[in-house]
Amino acid sequence: MIATSAQDPHAHVESARRGTTRPESAPRGAEPRLDVAGLGKSYGSGATAKEVIGDLTFSVEAGEVVCIVGPSGIGKTTLLKCLAGLHPASKGEMRIDGRTISGPPPEIALVFQDYSRSLMPWLTVEKNLLLPLRHLRLPRTELRARCEEALEAVGLTHAAGQYPWQLSGGMQQRVAIARALAYRPEILIMDEPFASVDAQTRFDLEDLCLRIRDGFGMTILVVTHDIDEAVYLADRVVVLGSRPARVLQVVDVDLPSPRDQISTRALPEFAAQRTEVLALIKRPA
Ligand SMILES: Nc1ncnc2c1ncn2[C@@H]1O[C@H](COP(=O)(O)OP(=O)(O)OP(=O)(O)O)[C@@H](O)[C@H]1O
After folding, report:
1. Domains (ranges, CATH) in the chain?
2. Are 128 and 119 a contacting pair, CB within 8 Å?
3. I need a surface site. Which of 198, 214, 220, 270 has the fewest CB within 10 A?
4. Given the CA of residue 240, which atom of ligand 1 is nearest to it?
């Protein structure tokens, strides 16, 4: 995961970055990039153990954007923490390219909703970006190039020398995303990343997310409470329900690309897919 390994994921991402269009999906029969098989997670043990995740099975192909939706407290953040190697699974398996996740994987970067707590207020934007890269032991020129590229991708080149507290909430969240990009992960995992910003900034950040997928060839997994956002962003939406949590359904989002905030959301198919996801969430357990 971000900043936890000396392994450099650069080579993989460079190859994906050569094109600026969405990468081809994985060939049939190839391992999914991310595979969750019969995952269960309980907190605590013995009589006080609490089973949060009962049995989750789904996969994410390379270059896909997959959104996870479900009621509050169902275990979405718990799932992401398991995938990021921060919590051990109680049962089942999680794999990246067929390899079992048993600790923080170097291929994953995680962006949380609460950017104000994840950025270091005493460091400039550039130094915040450099912090997770320090274990990679890269030459100074490479570090600078990564920072410049990541800040350019999120439209914050001008803010490199500023401190997080000098920036708006939306800008701080873009810094948090740039920090993940500078690490060049193969898989970007975001937990309600746009929940605390205004509607216009939210639209901009959603489009930024799609540009990152297209331009950097990343596989992206996003937890969101916003059904419209899930349908707008995703190739597939994984709907969680029941307690302990299970996958109610994986909804294929059949909308044209590239997506556009105005024309995509105006499509009758968009409304139909939103209704489909909403009906699943509202369905009595
Ligand atoms: N470290 C922990 N120890 C014990 N219980 C926990 C822990 N973390 C989360 N839980 C419990 O697990 C359940 C799922 O929490 P989680 O944060 O994963 O849900 P969520 O779907 O992300 O919720 P929300 O949508 O409200 O953010 C909750 O009942 C929560 O209280």
Report:
1. 10-282 (3.40.50.300)
2. yes
3. 198
4. 21
Contact 78 CB / ligand 1 (< 6 Å): yes
Backbone phi and psi for residue 97, each to the nearest 5 degrees, phi listed first: 50, 40
CB 74 within 8 A of CB 245: yes
* Strand ranges (E), 164-244: 187-191, 219-223, 236-241
Whose Cα sits closest to atom 29 in ligand 1? 73
Q: What is the ipTM of this complex?
A: 0.98
The rounded Å distance from CA 73 to ligand 1 centre is 5
Q: Which residues pair with 223 in a beta bridge?
A: 68, 191
Q: State the distance from the centre of ligand 1 to the C-alpha of 43, rounded, in angstroms.
A: 9
Work out which ligand 1 atom sits closest to the CA atom of 80: 18
The answer to whether the CB of 74 is under 6 A from ligand 1 is yes
Query: Residues with Cβ < 8 Å from 237, sequence gap 6 or more?
Result: 66, 67, 68, 69, 230, 231, 250, 251, 253, 277
Q: Verify whether ligand 1 is closer than 6 Å to residue 83 (CB atom).
A: no
Percentage of the chain beyond pLDDT 70 is 89
> Which residues lie closer than 8 Å to 117 by C-beta, 6 or more apart?
none
What digits encode the pLDDT tens for the residues 205-249?
899 899 989 988 899 999 999 999 999 999 999 999 999 999 999
Shortest-distance atom of ligand 1 to CA 191 = 22
Whole-prediction pTM: 0.87
CB atoms within 10 A of CB 95: 17
Relative orientation angle of helices 169-182 and 140-153, to the nearest 10 degrees: 140
Atom 14 (ligand 1) nearest CA = 75
d(CA 63, CA 3): 22
